[in-house]
Amino acid sequence: MTETYVEKFRDVHQLAHAELYTPVLEKSVEFFTEILGMTVVHEENGSVYLRAYEDTYKYSLILTPHHEAGMKHTAFRTYSPQALERRVEALEAAGVKGEWIEESYGHGRAYQFDDLDGHRLELFFEVERYEAPAHLSSKLRNRPQRRPLRGVPVRRIDHINFLTNEAKVPANAEFYVDQLGFNIREGVKKPDGDFFATWLSVSPLVHEVALMGDGLNGSGRLHHLAYWYGMPQHLDDLSDLCKEYGIEIEAGPLKHGVSQALCMYIIEPGGNRIELFGDSGYLILDPDKPTVEWPAEDTELAIIWYGGKLPETYFRHGTPAIKDETDELNIYFEPGENQIHEAKGN
Amino acid sequence: MTETYVEKFRDVHQLAHAELYTPVLEKSVEFFTEILGMTVVHEENGSVYLRAYEDTYKYSLILTPHHEAGMKHTAFRTYSPQALERRVEALEAAGVKGEWIEESYGHGRAYQFDDLDGHRLELFFEVERYEAPAHLSSKLRNRPQRRPLRGVPVRRIDHINFLTNEAKVPANAEFYVDQLGFNIREGVKKPDGDFFATWLSVSPLVHEVALMGDGLNGSGRLHHLAYWYGMPQHLDDLSDLCKEYGIEIEAGPLKHGVSQALCMYIIEPGGNRIELFGDSGYLILDPDKPTVEWPAEDTELAIIWYGGKLPETYFRHGTPAIKDETDELNIYFEPGENQIHEAKGN
Amino acid sequence: MTETYVEKFRDVHQLAHAELYTPVLEKSVEFFTEILGMTVVHEENGSVYLRAYEDTYKYSLILTPHHEAGMKHTAFRTYSPQALERRVEALEAAGVKGEWIEESYGHGRAYQFDDLDGHRLELFFEVERYEAPAHLSSKLRNRPQRRPLRGVPVRRIDHINFLTNEAKVPANAEFYVDQLGFNIREGVKKPDGDFFATWLSVSPLVHEVALMGDGLNGSGRLHHLAYWYGMPQHLDDLSDLCKEYGIEIEAGPLKHGVSQALCMYIIEPGGNRIELFGDSGYLILDPDKPTVEWPAEDTELAIIWYGGKLPETYFRHGTPAIKDETDELNIYFEPGENQIHEAKGN
Amino acid sequence: MTETYVEKFRDVHQLAHAELYTPVLEKSVEFFTEILGMTVVHEENGSVYLRAYEDTYKYSLILTPHHEAGMKHTAFRTYSPQALERRVEALEAAGVKGEWIEESYGHGRAYQFDDLDGHRLELFFEVERYEAPAHLSSKLRNRPQRRPLRGVPVRRIDHINFLTNEAKVPANAEFYVDQLGFNIREGVKKPDGDFFATWLSVSPLVHEVALMGDGLNGSGRLHHLAYWYGMPQHLDDLSDLCKEYGIEIEAGPLKHGVSQALCMYIIEPGGNRIELFGDSGYLILDPDKPTVEWPAEDTELAIIWYGGKLPETYFRHGTPAIKDETDELNIYFEPGENQIHEAKGN
């Protein structure tokens, strides 16, 4: 065994932040601050930078005004400066065309490029950690920021799910494996044996990235961005607030089969789907755990272990939305109305 | 059995509100609104009236400025107007001297009198139910007020615990039984066989009132006022906020033996002890359930089933505080410093 | 107000037990003992008597073999022996034909009669409380039996829901109010303004009895019997076990609008629907709280505040099942297969 | 920055199992199976091999009969066969004397050696994953074994805490860093600035190993072995069972400052301290996060963020126990009596 064992490289280390587009910036900011308890740390060129209170770096979310919702870019931090160089060399050797961004708020030079379905990715190493001002400083020395008093505050960014043109899911998953060092932790297969959806990670989390077939045949769309609570009750608390304040709950709380995560999906006022994780699911500490494969007939079980059924929207709604008048089943969300503003502070 | 069975009267029906003194009104209000998520509904003669979001009536707490903390009066609602008349007649026939209060904010005429240890009690029937203004109205038709966005919001008043001169505990418990129709649900005995503490109720709750021996030999003092969450996690959430914002946690989260309630004790900035209930313990639906008696040797188990030990302060601190320089073990709380104000809104 | 106020009688005090039919007795017993952690206390004439570990009396469930599932009788305990006499007199004066049962295991003489839709009810007062044998005795003096080590053990019986011929729901609800002293706590209306479903109680629980329109136009059927946990996590634990061991989860965990209860529905191997309560919802301590009425357009919200959608089966499946080949939408459950037996003890 | 950045090696990958001594093998097995829901998978030379239902490999715990409790050896799995070779070479180059074990149940050849305080460690790479027999197979494809029906079943091994001669804590921590590639995630300092306790990990978990000063000046002792639930309620459920069945709870449930873990400590019948984790605390996904240092004056906060105080025993009891008649404060545990056996199966 020893002679032939190939050690995998481990250069990409964690999901760092995502930049989302929103057509209703003010309402989106209100949602992320009042309901999810996030904190605004910076504004620049019209974009608003936000953090969850246990995010290590300055921010994990950038909200950027745009005529429609969607994901502008998603950033990963590498293990080291050398790891960053190695990945960029490998990407370029593989013919991927990217570009260096020299200056960004909160982190050093970064390399941006697209995955095979057109999702914009970014790699960087140098980063600024968050230093809380005195009035936001926690007494807990391993907590970068005092727990906020508003809403049901999320703790940290968890993962992102990219709708991927269905035909490209298997190749795109291989791209993350070969170019970025991800592991395919779990996958749901179509009757033809190809993956319809895959969950990939570079850490013991079951995924930092999921690639899921786009039911509307789109490309480069966002399925959802996920934040982490780690406490089951917080999903109930959040559900209660969402119902009270007019935030759309698409599904959950429910327990996924894949990842075993207790979760729920809501639509933020800009139209992007946000997932919340209410526990840790399971962690993969085993260095060479084989991919868990769910055959087509187990799809339902893979998606939901218990807690109801997923609505049609789940496999079709992504951002930017595709509005197709000829397709009766096409369901998409208009940016919603909520009642946070009027009730705030009372 | 049938011939001799005496049906008990059931005239007093529920705990309605408590009026607490505080030497630091503004800080106390800040605590109850920002940390416990309560809502101010009225101010009158310097007093502030607050409600939990699932309290049925207009308010359940009145905070009144005073040079020291304590309980000014505690009110119960009767089952009917007739029940009110019956109780007052019986009290007066028993030689209890009380007085009618004709006008009070939010309820009709009320009869005030003292229990045997000097705690001021009030009975009334006519009451105004809370009607939420539009911006605080819940979509849930059985919820009187929208769930607040601030802190870890309490749902309703639960019970009150009166420190009682130790020698008077048994007689005072009988006063609640004979004059007000309470049932002694549980009791902890001293080695001599008398009750050191009793838990009494008129409803399936294990107690609306507890009478507990005063370790400093005081009279008429408040041990604590309790609010209800019904969700275990909320005690963890509240603990986290209390530690972050400088609110004193005296004990818990822990599980009582008596009542089986998951609970915690904190000291509000004015010095009064506030208990929070994180589940429902058990309910007594059985109409003639015998008193559960805990012998002296089970005192520790009766107080804490699991979750640590109670500190010395638990049996000594009450409000108003008794400061006794000659007693080294005498522990009392100064109104505390907290950091809610500076962090609020951030 | 005082002059005209009519005091309501309060003679019926609590739900005591239910007797369910099952076509697969052994499998049903296995489910209630291994998955719900109940204890068998008695067997008589082929019936098996079971208790939850915090039930006060000897048992709360009787399983009786029969060719099909269903509810044989449901028993309530009265407040006193006098209350029992008063109710029987009133029922007979109202022309209800009932009969006295002189001997029953675990309780005294009982009066049995039908509600207006043919559900068999029973009233009694004298009862035997459970006395645990030494090896099942709890160290907690207010807990009648040691918490079991098997499954996710339920704590006590909570309520029962009777499918009622839709046209009879309003009149049957009035029967419970007028003859038995129940209060209509909540009701969901049809577009014509009549109640489609009502929730009734004699205690602060929102309901001991619910009456819900039978979607298959049956009479006298059981919708479900409910047991109580009081801890949200236990519904997740139970869901996990049900999925692992082949027990059908029909819906949930979810949060009802009506009653605000966190709950789930499963189908026991005999075909009866069992509900589990994961918290206390809210309690009605207010003696004269008006009925909460949900208009027809709020039906969905009334049934589910959050946590998914109810399946078609919810409004049609009851026991005994009605199998109607002409109705495509008619969904009913065959007694299920589970895998408890083979895995037990491993 | 890039030029001088040294990439750390990552050869040791996860905690795999621990072997504990027990003087009461049968009672210890009963505790781990009936209360913690573990499964016996193998017996060999008098030792019993057990697994938690989500452990990836065949077992995570070996119980070995001995005249006193303690830890016989603790095993870590390396990232690859090459990583195993590299670590052994480095250890031998550093003068550490170890030995190869050619055959072990469930894993390949292993290298055993001592840390600087005499705790026996083991490294291996080749391993057998658990394959459940049909009756223990889960419907969840990412769960190696069906969730058991007994007790409150633990999910996987989490970490181990070694009492370390107080003077050797800093040097021993450096040994784990230099020889095994651990990171010091958190540390509590003494007034002199040296670490009194350190928490170290090779994964995003805050620790797989903790080194804590031995309050009785011992060497090579075990403080505790920890298993993981990931659900806060399970600690309450376990507490309830422990109290009912005579298992000693030393402390908790409580929330650590260090690691932010919700936890509790119990003493298994053999005398070894077992910790249970009820959530995930926080994860360290950041590749170069600096050590969180707690100054001496924050020791209490570091140990307990909320949930009571640690007893004296916490800093003194380890296994094997040191019984010192001259030291009044010396507290140690005799193997306890429990009542699992008599109640089992009822």
List the topology elements:
Four copies of one chain form a homotetramer.
Chain A: E1 12-22, H1 25-35, E2 39-44, E3 47-51, E4 61-65, E5 70-78, H2 81-93, E6 99-101, E7 110-114, E8 120-124, E9 156-164, H3 169-180, E10 183-189, E11 195-201, E12 209-213, E13 222-228, H4 232-245, E14 248-255, E15 262-267, E16 273-277, E17 292-294, H5 299-303, H6 340-343
Parallel strand pairs in A: 1-4, 5-8, 9-12, 10-17, 13-16
Antiparallel strand pairs in A: 1-5, 2-3, 3-4, 6-7, 7-8, 9-13, 10-11, 11-12, 14-15, 15-16
Pfam family, one (chains A, B, C, D): Glyoxalase
InterPro entries (chains A, B, C, D): Fosfomycin_Res_Enzymes, Glyas_Bleomycin-R_OHBP_Dase, Glyas_Fos-R_dOase_dom, VOC_core
Keywords (chains A, B, C, D): Dioxygenase, Metal-binding, Oxidoreductase
